[in-house]
Structure formats: structure tokens, C-alpha cells
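Reviewer 2 asked us to include a model.

Predict the structure of this chain.
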Amino acid sequence: MALPSGISFSSDHKVVLPARFNVAVPFIDRHVGEGRGAKAAIRMAQETVTYAQLAERVNRTGNALLGLGLKSGDRLLMVVKDCPAFFYLFWGAIKAGIVPVPPNTLLRAPDYAYMIEDSDAALVVYSTEFAGEIEPALKQMPARALTVDAFLAEMAKASDELEPRLAAPTQDCFWLYSSGSTGRPKGAVHAQRDMVVTSELYGARVLGVMEDDVSYSAAKLFFAYGLGNGMTFPLWTGSTAVLDDRRPTPDTTFDNIERFRPTLYYGVPTLYAAQLAALETRPRDLSSVRACVSAGEALPADMFRRWKERTGTVILDGIGSTEALHIFIGNRLDDYRPGTSGKPVPGYEARILDENAKPVARGESGALWLKAESAAKYYWNKPEKTAETMVDGWLNTGDTYREDEDGYYIYEGRSDDMLKVGGIWCSPVEIENCLIGHPAVLEAAVVGHADEAELIKPKAIVVLKQAGSGDAALTEALMALCKKTLAPYKYPRWVEYLPELPKTATGKIQRFKLRA
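Predicted model (C-alpha cells):
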């Protein structure tokens, strides 16, 4: 599909935009004029929304927000489930010059109270399902608030015509709060151009999203990965998004795939592991899916292999972040290597640096830094953290990586999760991938633990496929597997069994909780 009028990309994949524009125009407004008015933009069990209906409701939403007294630059905190109203609020705000801020919908009242205060939200709109946490937060930090249903009633009364408020491509557009895996969440401030960059460079060019695709993301809209998968990629290409407001499980995701026949499916390793376990007992029809994507945590090579054997489909693993907005290193359908994050997305620069900020030799581990036009401009109210993370146009991802001889990037863990065993750096992810290769293991996490001599050694926390605690024989077998497969010093000296691992909403293992 041709790029929207007035938008182009240079030969080195840099975006060229009008000096003044509004990003809601290419994502929302243009589709009716291009003949897609009657086409389904959103499908879910409860309703279907066409592109013409979406454009009208986005306009009504922008006018309703302005009618409620919000002004250009004001923040709209929208704690909204995956449903059409999320689209209306997000794009209606942007078109009216208001800044939408969609936080994690799985948080607790103190977190929302913090975000209401931190963002200085002019309005909070929330789905009634989250009232149990939002309403106590509003008592702690009073702010103007409406339920989604109450807002939709206001929207229905507003005009369906709205002129877009124009802005510079680098002007503030929307925020995403980091998952807060350590400390308070940080508000990453994204610009007008950022969704154009990710949707074209990764969505259209790497993943190959086309107008006739149907995208279904089990990963929710409130975080960067799901925002691209389930909203911006379909809208950019004039294709269709499938939404489900329920918590994703193997049964709900398989039911949706069989019902809506998506061509693209997006998940996270935790969910793929559970789906694989479910497929062992009940086959499901995944024949519509031409590609699967994974992010949030590194996808083990063994999980890739088993999924391909079971479904005939590959999982394209990649790494993205709230700050970069979506995947910036990824595998492709015509160029993938299991157990790696793939290669940098065109238009994104990656470098691996040592502790002195010098590039490491290929094959050596170091800190991954990224340069991207989709990168957040700064953290709201966090000048010190901004200065530490965003340096001279480069973004410190906080991840440890190495690049193999063929240019594939291999994830070795968060920089603060790396272990030094016997004076040698050791990747927890490498040990975890080995453990997952055992048929009894569903998931594993590895952290450092002090032995009797106060020396740090690897400790494994394991979740089994079959409920129940592991025994001494299994522990011995897991240690033996690691000794046989990995360098001898890397085997876990202890194995603990838990029913589940602590994770962020994006699926990242919270190893700091396991170290506590």
C-alpha cells in the first residue's frame, strides 16, 4: 500500500514529514477517502467497527474532550480495556491536540494515584472493570474522572467534524509509562512522528503487514508492543485488528484465532509456553496464521522449534521497549535464527559497548545502545533518569547483548541481571534456555545466590508443566543437563520449584523479586 500523502522515507530509512501535521490524519482520516470506509477496522466478539465509524467517533471524541474543557497539551489518563473506546479516546485526543496516556490496566490504586499526580491529568477515563483500583486512587489524588460509558454518552452528543490540530513532527504526542519492573514507572514522552516510524519500518517493511491482513495481539494495547500490534500497524496499512478485553489464556487465544482467522498473531514467551502445553492435549486450527511474533522476553530456541513442529508456523522473536516504542531488533520471515533477537530493523542503529562506553569486539557481551527516530524524547519529571538513559541521541536499553558472526543479536539478560561466576560473566538467559529444554519444564528463571563462602553462583527457579513440586531426581537431572550443555561453571547449584514466576505486564521476568 502506498504511503499516505505528504509522508515519505529516505534511502537511509529516515522519515520525511510535513513541517506541520497531525498523526491522526494518516492513521484515521485518510481511509474513508481511499475507499475503506465500509471495511472492518476493529473486530471483536461484541461488535465490528468500520473505518468510517472509527473516523466519525474519533472526531466526536476529540470534540467531547474539548467540550469538557481540556486544552491542547493537557493529559488524558485513559485506563481502558482493549475495546473500540480505546481507539476513540487515543486518536480523538491526539487529533484535538490533547496528550493521551494509557497506563497498564493491571496496576493497583497507589500506582494510579502516583500517575494521576505525576501526569497532572486533566481527565481520567476508565473502564468500569478497573473501578476497584481507580476509584480509591481518585480518593488519594482527586482528579476529574468519567467511566468509559459516561464518556461515550458525551461523545454521542458531540459534533462529528473536527479539524486536526497541527504540530511539528517532534512535538509531544502521547506518553507510555514504563512497566516499572524496578522502582516507580517512568512516563516516556513520544512525539507525533514515532508511530509513523515503527508502523512503516517494522510493521510494513520487516513484518510485511498488508491491507488484507488481520492482526490479533494477545499482548494488550496499554503497552508499546501491543499498541503497535493491535492498533497502529493495522491502522497504518488499512487492515483489520481483532480485540479481546479478557485476560489472554490458551483457550481464549485459540478460540479467537479459530473464530476471526487472523493472519498475524502476537504473543509473549510465557503465553507461547502455555499454548504449547495446551496443544499437547488438544489440537487447534491455526491455519490462518502466516506469522507469529514474540517480544517482552527472549524466546528460547527450543520453544521456537516445538512451536514450528506443532503448528508449522515460525515465531519471529524481537526486542523492543517502551522508550523505543516497538521492536527495533527482530527476526524476519526470510531471515531468522532461533535463540536470537534477529538483526536491527532498517533505520535503527544498534551498538554494544563495554563498561568504558567503547564498542566491544563481535562475539563479546556488552550494553546495548540504540539510535532511533521512534525513541522517546525524555522521561516526564525525571531529568536525572533522562540524562542517564538518553545520551547524545542514543538510548541505553539496559540490556546485555552480543552479536554473533552472522550479525544476529543474542540477548543475555538485563544488565543488572548478569552474574559473575568465578570471575566470568554469565548470562541467566543462557541457563534458562537450557533448563527449558527439559521436557518437564515450562519456565525457568536464574538469579545469583551466595554460597557458604559468600560467592555468587547461579540458582534456578523452575515452573513445571505438571503441577506439583519437583523432586531430588528431577533436580539432579536438571543440573546434569546444564553441566552437559553449558560451560561447567554455569550449572545451577540450587533448584527451587514455584507454581509461577513474577512478571511485568509485558511478560518480562522480574528477577529482582526472586533475588529478594
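The chain has three domains: 17-167, 200-414, 418-515. The mean pLDDT is 94. We have added this to the supplementary material.
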